[in-house]
Structures are given as C-alpha cells and as structure tokens.
Amino acid sequence: MSVYHIGEIVSLVFMAIALGMDAFSVSLGMGMQQVRLKRIAIVGAVIGLFHMIMPFIGILLGQAISAQIGQYATLLGGMLLVGIGSQMIFSSFNHETKRLAQPIGIGLVFFALSVSLDSFSVGLSLGMSEVKTVIALILFGTASTILTWLGMILGKKMHGLLGVYSEILGGSILCGFGLHILFG
C-alpha cells in the first residue's frame, strides 16, 4: 500500500469521525428520553446505515448535481433537528401529550435522516474526486454507529442524574445543534 493510499484512508477516517460527531451530539440528547439498550442498538445501526446510504447517493450524483443542493440538504437537516428538539422541550411540560420525537418507526427515519444529511453533502464532493467509495462508506457507517451508541448511552446515564430536567436538556441539545447547522 502506497503512502498516498494510507494518507487517503487516514483522511477518510478523520472525515468519518467528523461526520459521526453530529450523530454523537444529537444522540446525547435523544438518549435522555429513557431509551432501552435494545433501542439504542437499533438506533445506532439505522444511523450508521443512513450514514452509508446518504453519501453513496451523494457520490453517485456528485458529478451531475451542483454544490447548491448540498446546502439545501444541510438546511433541511438543521430544521428537522430544531423541530424534534422543540417538540421534546414542549412535551416535557405537558405530560399528557404523546411524544412525537421517539426513535421508533418514522421518528427513527426522520432522526437518522436529519443527522445524516450532511454526509450527503460530503458524498457530493467525494463524488467529484476519485475516492475509494467502499472504504469511505464503511468508515462513515462504522464511525457514526459507534458514536451514536456512545452518545445515547451517555445520555441515558445523564438522564438518571438529571431526572425530569433531562428531556428539556436533551431537546435543548437537539435545538442547539440544529441552530448551529442553520446559522453556524
């Protein structure tokens, strides 16, 4: 293996960790909703899968689509995170309403989509280069899965320490991260 290939793989590892860090941050907030370990495993796997699918689509469309599409995808992801976080905060004050931001079914799809949209943008740019697609996708999926698991487990531990305020904190983390995506 040449020095160029090792450098490319190291760059992809750092990119995978960077892409997975948003999943970690968001999962920290989601983990505060008293999520069971089985659900944490499923959520991590689904987010990892989305972190492979989205850049793959981006890579396929990378040469055909302009860079502006990637900005709209990021914007949509930020708005989804703010919406989910706001709903968590409001539901913490009204315990009679059913939570919409559950990492189950369509809620899990929206959650995974919102944290993996930035990887679509990365895929667009990677599609314009000659990156090793399979290696990149495996690294992106693995890093985001592991970081999601870590975030949700830490969030679960923090929930025990914070009690009723944990859902407000979790929603605030989601909102803050979404606002950071939108305006940062």
UniProtKB/TrEMBL annotation:
Q: Which domain of life is it from?
A: Bacteria
KW Manganese (keyword) present: yes
Matching InterPro entries: Mntp/YtaF, Put_MntP
Question: Which keywords accompany this UniProt record?
Answer: Cell membrane, Ion transport, Manganese, Membrane, Transmembrane, Transmembrane helix, Transport
- Give compartment(s): Cell membrane
Q: Can you tell me where the transmembrane regions are?
A: 6-28, 40-66, 72-93, 105-128, 134-155, 162-183
Topology in the lipid bilayer: Multi-pass membrane protein
What GO terms fall under cellular component here?
Answer: plasma membrane
Question: Which Gene Ontology MF annotations are present?
Answer: manganese ion transmembrane transporter activity
**UniProt function note:** Probably functions as a manganese efflux pump.
- Which family, according to the similarity comment? Belongs to the MntP (TC 9.B.29) family.
Q: HAMAP family under this entry?
A: MntP_pump (MF_01521)
Q: What is this protein called?
A: Putative manganese efflux pump MntP
Q: Which gene encodes it?
A: mntP
